[in-house]
Amino acid sequence: MATGNFNRALLVTGGAGFIGSHLVRRLVKHYPDTLVVNLDLLTYAGNLENLRDVENAPNYRFVKGDICDAKQVNALFEQFKFEGVFHLAAESHVDRSISDPMSFVKTNVLGTGVLLNAYRAYRADGGKFYQISTDEVFGSLTDVGFFTETTAYDPRSPYSASKASADHLVRAYHHTYQLPILISNCSNNYGSHQFPEKLIPLMINNIKQEKSLPVYGEGINVRDWLWVDDHVAAIDLIYHQGKTGETYAIGGGNEWRNIDLVHFLCDEVDTQLNRPKGTSRGLVTFVRDRAGHDHRYAIDATKLETELGWKPSVTFEEGLRLTIKWYLENSDWLNHITSGNYQEYYKKHYS
Ligand code: NAD
Ligand code: TYD
Q1: 137 in ligand 1 pocket by Cβ < 6 Å?
Q2: How are beta strands 284-287 and 213-216 bridged, if at all?
Q3: Please, are residues 230 and 201 in contact by the beta-carbon 8 Å criterion?
């Protein structure tokens, strides 16, 4: 086949996760002649409710499976002869990587190797293997300077080390086997459908429920935040117009100290819930710092902006207001996660 009436087939791994679901939605809607196949194991982070609005689209297929399972992955590649792969499936939370590093080594390193082998054996011409990576592979900045495409790798958490290893494998397959590849390293994303273990959705949920807000250390660590829709727009652009073999740094130019961000979230949730100004700031609780906590991430996205004409579409404040509104209006989505119900969705709707 494998693509039937479609011009091409694209594989998205990890498409039921936060960024993956936004990417799947974009590809399904923007390219109706393309078959978009979403391969996802549905770990705790995978949630098919993220994709309700496209699940019946004729050009979308969901396949439940593990990127580490070479037999299943090879069979899928043989069936669809994918033009390209957008590789997002990963263990993605730094705190979990500190308590359970080996599951990060398995999924993020071994899984990437399995996919590269399959792509090498079965790919269709004209496409690329696109590794979606993180700025965390570059390590930690002091208060000055920025990460660029040429910054030396210096990962410092099991998560970032596993992503760095995967990036190295992808580049090695390009140089050794001439596999057409792309890599992008993006800063912290925020937006709808993010699993509420990450800073922004966790804080919004806790503020809403008037629970304490655990800020690590003194809250002075800096992250550079990007609206998830701007990230997937960049991914689409890079896949279709980027130069094979190249790396692109993606970032919003939005550096915020964690404590300032948490205060902003408190004030904005108070406003949207009509609570008196200042109500929620008192919920902030400084807790023991994360082990090896990287001080600052910041991206210089000049290459992407000048070579491909990309720029973010919203300011951080606008994006955050919309994000808060989404979490407050979609309490069912959040409740299904906290109750564990979201994990029943596959059984109910797919089998
Ligand atoms: P996420 O944790 O929300 O989603 C990960 C998805 O991968 C889930 O749907 C999960 O079920 C799936 N998955 C995990 N193990 C799998 C396996 N063995 N086989 C198949 N599927 C599996 O992650 P996210 O935040 O959406 O991040 C997606 C990608 O983007 C990751 O590779 C991450 O490193 C990268 N990234 C994330 C950010 C960010 O801020 N979230 C920033 C830059 C890069
Ligand atoms: P996180 O969303 O886990 O992303 P990353 O570690 O990949 O940057 O965390 C963002 C920042 O927020 C990071 O500096 C750690 C901090 N943080 C807290 O202070 N409290 C929390 O409960 C969480 C989850 C994160």
Answers
A1: no
A2: parallel
A3: no
